[in-house]
Write a structure and sequence with these properties.
Layout: E1 4-13, E2 16-26, E3 31-36, H1 42-49, E4 57-62, E5 65-66, E6 74-77, H2 89-99, H3 104-117, H4 133-145, E7 151-155, H5 163-178, E8 182-186, H6 190-196, E9 199-204, E10 207-213, H7 214-219, E11 225-230, H8 235-240, E12 244-249, E13 252-256, H9 260-272, E14 277-283, H10 287-300
Parallel strand pairs: 3-8, 3-9, 6-7, 7-8
Antiparallel strand pairs: 1-2, 1-4, 4-5, 9-10, 11-13, 11-14, 12-13
């Protein structure tokens, strides 16, 4: 089978099982979300996928072949950032490109292509220490994709980036998938995962607590909030209906509900009293809600 397959993969350090029988499939170009709290086993899983760490048991295959560092053309943006501060950006990029087997001519073309896309051309002849943290991050992203890898692992790719540079990176990731790349993304920003990922896996203390198609997962949950945008103060209606306000700003209300009927009854009352409503949206739980439900309580008690 094409793509990345993990079957019952485990890893133990010093008698502690940090990854416990994880299975996942990434069988078509897309972005797969790997989630969990700090210490949940995400980084260990990533390092086993990339052949950096050896698994203790289970199977990891890429296009039907057992994974090792020679068999997978991968790119990796680790969470632990690090560039050589005193060395010119161009020289660093050339060094990493050659490590991946690129010749100088091909590497040069790739460096200049991605420098233009990422808007860092002016920094190529500078030492890394002269760059802002955001631009250093873009350079590290370049090292992950400069050699045209088949599998790309991105650990917190948007951390520290401003909105403009975040948008640049988002567009590149979308384009990589469009060009047939397989991407695993680990991030703490749940809206980012919801934006990109078709399938997810949530780890808690090394074990899988939830995985599958994100759309199907959310569909299985009942609605838990309603958003109302109006021109009036509707506080009295909410008190009458005994509904809790999660957030309110300029007459835009986010309200917690236990069932959809409560929201519909509120709407009927507002309409009957001729309250102008610009938006009324019954919403499913966010991925953030689901994540907290699955891992929050056990970690809070640890």
């Amino acid at each position: 089978m094409q793509g990345l397959i993990l079957k019952n993969v485990s890893k133990t350090f010093a008698g502690k099982k940090v990854v416990d029988k994880i299975s996942l499939e990434l069988t078509k170009p897309s972005v797969y979300g790997l989630l969990g709290t700090n210490g949940a086993g995400k980084t260990t899983t990533i390092r086993m996928i990339l052949g950096i760490l050896k698994k203790d048991s289970g199977e990891i295959t890429w296009n039907g072949q057992a994974v090792d560092r020679k068999s997978v053309n991968f790119g990796y943006l680790p969470e632990e950032r690090g560039v050589y501060p005193k060395i010119k950006i161009y020289d660093q990029l050339m060094y990493f490109a050659e490590l991946k087997g690129m010749d100088k001519v091909t590497a040069d073309k790739s460096i200049r292509k991605w420098a233009k896309v990422l808007k860092v051309e002016e920094y190529l002849e500078m030492p890394a220490e002269k760059l802002s943290k955001g631009n250093q991050q873009k350079i590290q992203f370049m090292t992950a994709i400069i050699h045209n890898p088949d599998l790309v692992v991105l650990d917190e790719p948007f951390s520290g980036l401003d909105p403009v540079n975040t948008e640049i990176l988002k567009n590149i990731i979308i384009d990589l998938v469009r060009h047939g790349k397989y991407i695993i993304m680990s991030a703490h920003q749940m809206p980012t995962i919801e934006e990109f990922c078709t399938d997810i896996l949530i780890l808690n203390r090394g074990k899988t607590v939830l995985q599958g198609n994100l759309k199907d997962i959310k569909a299985a949950y009942p609605a838990n909030r309603v958003v109302i945008d109006t021109t009036s103060d509707i506080t009295k209606y909410l008190k009458q209906a005994k509904l809790a306000v999660e957030n309110e700003k300029d007459h835009q209300y986010t309200i917690k509900i236990k069932h959809e009927n409560a929201a519909r009854e509120l709407l009927e009352q507002l309409v009957a009293d001729h309250i102008t409503i610009d938006r009324f949206e019954i919403m499913k739980p966010t991925l953030n809600d689901i994540f907290i439900e699955k891992v929050g309580a056990t970690n809070a008690n640890s």
